[in-house]
Design a protein that fits this description.
Elements lengths: L1 E7 L3 E3 L15 E8 L6 E2 L3 E3 L9 E3 L3 E3 L7 E4 L4 E9 L6 E3 L5 E2 L8 E8 L6 E2 L3 E6 L3 E4 L19 E6 L13 E4 L3 E6 L14
Parallel strand pairs: 7-14
Antiparallel strand pairs: 1-2, 1-3, 3-4, 3-5, 6-8, 8-11, 9-10, 9-12, 12-13, 12-14, 15-16, 16-18, 17-18
């Protein structure tokens, strides 16, 4: 039984007359069949086989990175412009590798509570093609603002006689560029931004009376 050749849709013909065939590079899904002839009988077509060509994986880009306070979630991160299905989302902290993997396979992701600046990306795959990574988006963590007494203990609870200077009261802030102090009584002034110092002269905080001895 002789083989007349192999043909695919659109009637492309190849002069191969063996029982096997390997195509050249393909860029689209293609069906193949063989055409055979026995002696002087009319040729007959084989059944077809299909080689499915997947478009190469394209990672796309992730948007939604923002600045949040420590202890908050990332907010909605969105993948767009990709070719292929989402396999997973990944995260990395500082300069570490993308080792943290999340099993979310949708185009959007919201993190759990974050306490350090984190980059996120998606991994996508088109069919049997190699996976591709998206670009990253960064969620930047701002330390929570704190203010603590940095002067001696008890300086924030002074009781002074009239016309007596108070001991300076000092507070230090973290995670902030400064603070606004409101509600202070007359005569108390504030100095500094990240370190706040409160002072007063001649402020009547408590009247003192002489103690009578018997």
């Amino acid at each position: 039984m002789a083989k007349l050749g192999i043909t695919i849709q659109h009637m492309d013909r190849y002069s191969n007359t063996t029982n096997t065939y390997t195509s050249a590079v393909l860029t689209q899904t293609t069906q193949f069949r063989a055409v055979v002839q026995s002696g002087s009988c009319a040729p007959a077509n084989s059944t077809t086989t299909t080689v499915t060509v997947d478009q190469g994986s394209v990672g796309g880009s992730v948007s939604g990175g923002t600045t949040i306070c420590s202890g908050s979630t990332s907010g909605l991160l969105t993948l767009s412009g990709q070719t292929g299905a989402v396999l997973r989302w990944q995260a990395r902290y500082h300069h570490s590798a993308h080792g943290q993997i999340f099993s979310n396979t949708t185009n959007t992701y919201t993190s759990a509570v974050l306490t350090q600046t984190t980059q996120f990306r998606a991994v996508v795959q088109s069919g049997s093609c190699a996976p591709a990574n998206s670009t990253t988006t960064t969620v930047t963590i701002t330390a929570n603002n704190t203010i603590i007494l940095s002067s001696a203990a008890g300086t924030d609870a002074q009781m002074k006689c009239i016309n007596t200077t108070i001991t300076n009261i000092t507070y230090a802030t973290t995670g902030a560029t400064g603070a606004i102090v409101t509600g202070l009584p007359s005569g108390v002034t504030v100095h500094g931004q990240r370190v706040l110092s409160l002072s007063a002269v001649h402020r009547q905080l408590q009247e003192c009376f002489p103690t009578r001895l018997h």
